[in-house]
UniProtKB/TrEMBL annotation:
Zn(2+) binds at residues 259, 263, 289. GO terms for cellular component: extracellular space. Binds 1 zinc ion per subunit. This is Extracellular metalloproteinase.
Length: 491
């Protein structure tokens, strides 16, 4: 992996050559040009030079790099230094570094470097901590938030990697201690990884820049306001306990992480990226909660269908934070559409539990028809923009996932783009049908109807007296369209 691109052994030699030119030859040539244009020696105790050299080598935009090179002296004069001894050791903040979100933390240290006769030498160097505004990993800024202050986060604690920039931490909760600060480095690192993983997963299924995803730099690929839209993620948020809200994560429960990140997905896609008020209340709010649980289940599921809790780690309860385990077995979870009439399921989280269970049952049926993929991540596009079919997609010009679990993810994400603002359960169901017609020509329509009807969302399901704000009486329907009645079984 290089920058924000991936390479595989099967890639053509030109792919490796392009990465080598972009990540090695280009930055070295830019630094040589800086040295040629600025031959004067510079003081070793001034970290401004090191910070600007770093930005020239690391910035992904060649236009910006050329600007840094050609205007090196004037940019350097615009940067200032602020000493700080309160952070442990002698730290200097370098202000106004172009391409950096916040002042760069610089600390002088000794490093081993190759010398003569296979020996190493100790040399002084600047160790820099940079939050890049233009970053190949520009999806999330992750840190602790013990104070519970969502406005001040730049200087909050983040883990430090070892000499090889590896972030490897163990769960070091001390015996008889309930202090989560004991494992904060592990927690923040896992948070950073999970947010990036989910970002990349949703990106491959269509939640990209143009759709309004969350990135600090959109690389001129469109999107809402273009740039500066990365997720600010908090581990161990001091504003509450054992909960998570988008965008403030507080624990190590991956179900909770993915649930909250999915709120960003559904909010941006439903009604368009500029309309964030489509899932605020009533059934639409319940759908938003349900999608969060459903995607958390899909990401963590295995081929052997089982029963899954939601938030069991955070709550320290085997059943988790929902009334039921999620299961395709109706003897374990018998929720249907009309379960919303029960006061326990009448508010958004309860309705979300019903919707997630319905989607989980539909997904189980799709897996029984099309099989299970051990990987959810679609293939990385090649350098020419084409996507290899491999064992992930069906043969053909349209990229249709071939397995039941990956197809279901694609249908649900595409349906979010197709459904109206403030959708009902019926709207969300019908949008999944429309997504299948768009993607496959409707090849799965009857299978989807069979699965939805098994949980009361057949064509004869009714809502009597409901409004956008909720209420009304929900009536199960178990019928499927006439064309789907032949040789189709009800789950």
């Amino acid at each position: 992996m290089s920058g924000n691109q991936q390479t595989r052994f099967g890639d053509s030699p030109t792919v490796f050559e392009e990465l080598f030119q972009g990540d090695c030859v280009g930055p070295l040539a830019a630094l040589r040009e800086v040295a040629r244009l600025n031959p004067q020696p510079h003081p070793i105790d001034d970290p401004r030079w090191a910070a600007l050299y770093f930005m020239i080598a690391a910035h992904p935009d060649p236009i910006q790099v050329n600007h840094f090179v050609q205007n090196f002296s004037s940019i350097l004069r615009g940067m200032s230094l602020t000493p700080n001894t309160s952070l442990g050791g002698s730290v200097i903040f370098v202000n106004n570094v172009p391409g950096s979100v916040s002042p760069v933390k610089a600390r002088m240290m000794y490093i081993h470097s190759p010398g003569w006769d296979d020996e190493t030498e100790l040399n002084l160097a600047w160790r820099l901590e940079v939050e890049m505004a233009h970053n190949c990993f520009s999806k999330v800024f992750a840190q602790e938030n013990w104070r519970g202050d969502n406005q001040v986060w730049v200087d909050n604690h983040r883990p430090e990697g070892n000499a090889w920039l590896e972030f490897i931490f163990e769960y070091r909760n001390k015996p008889n201690s309930s202090d989560p600060k004991d494992y904060i480095d592990l927690s923040v690192t896992q948070l950073f990884y999970t947010v990036n993983m989910v970002h990349d997963l949703y990106y491959r299924y269509g939640f990209d820049e143009a759709a309004g995803n969350f990135q600090q730099d959109n690389y001129r690929r469109g999107g809402e306001d273009g740039d500066r839209d990365a997720i600010i993620a908090y581990s161990q948020d001091g504003s509450g306990m054992n909960n998570a809200v988008f965008i403030t994560m507080v624990n190590m429960d991956v179900f909770s992480f993915i649930h909250e990140l999915t709120h960003g997905l559904s909010t941006r896609l439903t009604g368009g990226r500029s309309n964030s008020g489509c899932l605020d209340w009533g059934e639409s709010g319940g759908l938003g909660e349900g999608w969060g649980d459903f995607f958390a289940l899909m990401v963590r599921s295995v081929e052997e269908s089982g029963d899954f809790p939601m938030g069991s780690w955070a709550s320290n309860e085997p059943m988790g934070i929902r009334y039921n385990l999620y299961s395709t077995n109706t003897s374990v979870n018998s929720l249907t559409y009309e379960s919303i009439n029960d006061p326990r399921y009448a508010l958004v989280h309860g309705m979300g539990e019903v919707w997630a269970e319905i989607l989980w049952a539909v997904s189980g049926h799709m897996i029984s028809i099309h099989g299970f993929s051990s990987t959810l991540l679609p293939p990385q596009p090649l350098s020419n923009g084409t996507v290899p079919v491999g064992d992930f997609y069906l043969p053909g010009s349209t990229l249709v996932p071939k397995h039941g679990n990956t197809l279901m993810i694609q249908l649900v994400i595409l349906a979010m783009k197709l459904q109206p603002c403030r959708p009902s359960f019926f709207d969300a169901r019908d949008a999944i049908m429309a997504a299948d017609r768009f993607l496959t020509g409707g090849k799965n329509e009857c299978e989807l109807w069979v699965a939805f009807s098994s949980r009361g969302l057949g064509i004869d399901a009714l809502l009597k007296g409901g409004t956008l704000w909720g209420g009304g009486h929900h009536v199960n329907g178990y019928k499927v369209p006439d064309q789907c009645k032949v040789d189709k079984k009800i789950l």
